[in-house]
User: Fold these one by one.
Assistant:
Number 1:
Amino acid sequence: MNSQMPVCVPELTATILLVEDDRDIADMLSEMLVQNGYTVVSAQSGAEMDRVLRRQSFDLVVLDVMLPGEDGFSICRRLRAEARTPIIMLTAVATDVDRIVGLEFGADDYVTKPFNSRELLARIKSLLRRASYGSERPERPSAMSFDGWRIDPVSRTLVDRAGSQIFMTTAEFDLLVALCLNAGRVLTREQLLSLTHAGVAGPVERSVDVHISRIRQKIEPNPKDPSLIKTVRLGGYLFTPRVEAS
């Protein structure tokens, strides 16, 4: 990790839960985040995290994969089943498989150890901005309808044909909004990363594929033969439905 602490005027005010059993890493991250205007609470295990969550809620979770007892993947899956709080996973294994497993379990982003402090800080700011915790919120598009579905970027809700709200992670929701705003246009993975990461370099391109797969499971009549989100060979993805203001 980069030992030089990045310090800047905070753009966002948020409370962050750091789940990390390595004291040195936890202390370094806590110091960096506090210096940048965030409130930080630390936990060293899933059990300790559960006790903390019973007392308060958080705007973002930084979660290590390798923890004593319950591992980070299992914890991520539990957290995602209960809330849409943004989750950044820290992994010491720099393989696509390890990263993709975390994304499949509902993580919004990941950072590989050893990491650059500035990169992690940028990713945290990006996720918080996308999750609408910024003090200055950019103008957002109005609600949209497609194929019987309704998506509202302001309330960040997706409602199906029966009127039921469908749970989505921050990354999934932002990808679907980007697709709706560009319906009928092929978007490359690089364009989708740019549109959903506020200009900050995002995860590897394959993470887009994982999130698209999860979105298909939620909105496609037949996820194995998708009709709403088409894969364009050597191109990217095409959102086929007609999208209208709702």
Note: DSSP finds eight helices and twelve strands in the chain.
Number 2:
Amino acid sequence: MGEEAHRSVQELAASLGALPPEFVRPEHEQPAATTFPGGAALDVPVIDLSEPGYGARVAAAARDWGLFQVVNHGVPSPVVAELQRVGREFFALPREEKERYAMDPASGRIEGYGTKLQKDLEGKKTWNDFFFHVVAPPAKVDHGVWPRSPPEYREANEAYCRHMQRVARELLGHLSLGLGLEEGAMAEAFGGGDLVFLQKINLYPPCPQPELTLGVAPHTDMRVAGSTRCTFLCRVEYSSCL
């Protein structure tokens, strides 16, 4: 494999004064075209999970929009901060250490450390590095691909996942009721205790021309190969300059 295949966006960002052409998105995908400059932004539903009766609003937002944002979800700020901390510490490791956990899609290994220096179908690249792995259920988890440095990585991920499982159960319960089903119907249909949770920690290094590129391009989230059950993809996203 060539040198570029091993080089991360993080390393590339440290040596650039201008954005390489392969990172420049088509004009309609550039950030200036997607942030509603000079006009009103779309009023995407925001659901406050601490308010009484929020379940009905969850069902309505799913029916009318197909997506919504939740706030006051009960995930403690220290849990989120710790997950971000271990993620930053991992990305600060030397390249050789990070590559011990590199994903290898050619061999079927989709979990681990990766970068978006690979081109998409339009010949473009996105501005991020990431770490991706299954966090639940235990039977699907391979701790062999999880970083051993920092040593708190596993504890931080598992603590965050427990809260994500709780939030997912609550939302699936309200969606079930909104469909006129028993509260546990959707969770059971999607696998019950075998519901798969995927964790993706994205790193967005400082960019010399952020108005021209994207950290995540338009996409459809994946599902676990060979599975007909529901998969939850939990993302933790932050800039390396924080």
Note: Strands lie at 46-48, 69-71, 112-115, 129-136, 196-204, 231-239.
Number 3:
Amino acid sequence: MPIASVNPATGEILQTFEPLDAAGIEQRLARAEAAFHGHRSTPFTARAELMHRAADLLDRDQETVARTMTEEMGKPLTAARAEAAKCAKAMRWYADNAEALLADEHPAQADVTDSGATRAYVRYRPMGPVLAVMPWNFPFWQVIRFAAPALMAGNVGLLKHASNVPRTALAIEELFQRAGFPEGCFQTLLIGSDAVEDVIRDRRVAAVTLTGSEPAGRAVAAAAADEVKKAVLELGGSDPYVVLPSADLEAAVATAVRARVQNNGQSCIAAKRFIVHTDVYDRFTSAFTEAMRALRIGDPMDEGTDVGPLASRQGRDDLEELVEDARTHGARVECGGDRPMGWDTGWFYEPTVLTGVTPAMRIHQEETFGPVATVYRVADLDEALALANDTPFGLSSNVWTTDRDEQERFVRDIQAGGVFFNGMTASHPALPFGGVKRSGFGRELSGHGIREFCNVTTVWIG
């Protein structure tokens, strides 16, 4: 079946591609293996020069790249430009810092004397070709945050991108080629999900990283474990956004709107469950609802659009089912809750606020991937923390409080890979990113991310 690029704002098929056959996959795997043997031996300075060149090209081509992303998955054009700029920033960060992050580690001689060594140290060595199975929601950023550290560490990359963003996938491959990376250092595999397991099991693939759904993560992790290969998973999230009485309420509301509808609400780290102390609940909910209702829905190519379409018809339909289930079981729709009038083509859904959500509703436990927020009232910090942790996911969290004791309590007890105080969750190249529970394992970005796909080698000299 052809791989199609479809504009979610109109439903128009933009371009189709034939997936690789067995011979095409074999050619690219052989090319990756050959490229690794050369790339792994290049000095950091040479890799950094190439990575800087790629970042410069991305900056130069930002408008073209942004429009391709918007056409394929519907994010507002302004957000697509920002994504391209963020990618260039991360590429430069790894180009400038990889050598120091992977420098040999030398324990104090006194600590290893009784091992019989005259000298001992740790070296980080690249593993080989790494397969990345990536999602559509941040189609450049998700790939670059894997590719930049992997290539700078001396690995080579194989990308199986989401099937609805093939043009973006090919643009990333072309970017690294134009920057001068040797043939085979980064390749896109236009294949369906049914071909992924065979690639993971191929002897030439050293490891796999996936960002995506929990079912996809389970399948990839199972295949990797069966082959005894390293895997890193970043899966779903149902991030809490806790507002306590000491919060700057105006800032908390404004940030809450951005945190919920970023990328049209299609972000694993978007705030989804708004847990508000009873002392400020009424004021927060009223202001938050009005701000969500005021957002402008429209063509993502329009500079004034706040919320564009969902990336797929299925995604829109799944979101509708969650809202209808909640409504049927007694939730109150404060705003939204339907397809917007005047947008009969494309996969649009209104920014929506639900209150009165209970554990009997699917939306209480399932991830909402779209511009739908649930707001809960809690009596105190203990109830807020318990509700924040009442989810199978644990990607990140947001807490609004200026009380140091409350902050320390959340740092200690929140079940998440991150906690952001008085702001919204965001990824940054210098900070580790990843989750706990069913949000996955392993870390991306920072020194932790670049070391995930390195062979941590003990060197002992007698």
Note: The chain has two domains: 3-235+439-461, 239-428.
Number 4:
Amino acid sequence: MSRPVVIVVAAGPGVSGSLARRYAREGYDTGLVGVDETVLTTLAGELEDLGATAHHVVADITDADAATEAIGGLAERFGRVDVLHFNPSAFRQKHPLTLTSAELLQDVGLGVAALLTALQAVRPYMSAGGRVTATGSMAADEPWNEAASLGVQKAGLRNLVHSIDATLEPDGIRAASVTVRGTLGKEGPFTPDRVADALWDAAHQDEAEWRTEVPYSG
């Protein structure tokens, strides 16, 4: 039987990298999607050192056609997807009087809409027991007006995850977002590794008590 597979969208050196390493240590092979070839190559090498098979693709996930081809290609290469993790968001320091509608839509395209592209690309390769997870933020509930689009993204992402879970539950596939209620740092409860552990735990909840939104307060 082939090893389970996780695909990480917007893979990089932070939480997503920590999560990819956690899955590799747990026996998963990994598909990485990101925008920086050097970062992806380095991370893939780290995963292979942990015993995983790791493939990566560089793609603009806001380009639906290109992202579908890239993510679907990874899924086809592995032949299965057990976990899809969605990590991206756009930080734009603009308040509602300077943020334009076009900028808001651009940011939502990255931080929310791209999840639909990724999900639809991998769905044919997911089966019962599959999981979809997303990195959420307290900005969904406590937005900072100086970065207004971020709160909109995180609120929209959490809402979309609820809908994804309701849609896929009849097929035995569940979805959850983790609301990180703190600021990422190099020490303390909000290091990338600690947040990655929370994301792992969310994906491996008891299905009888499944929560589509899991708060992480450290």
Note: The chain has a mean pLDDT of 96.
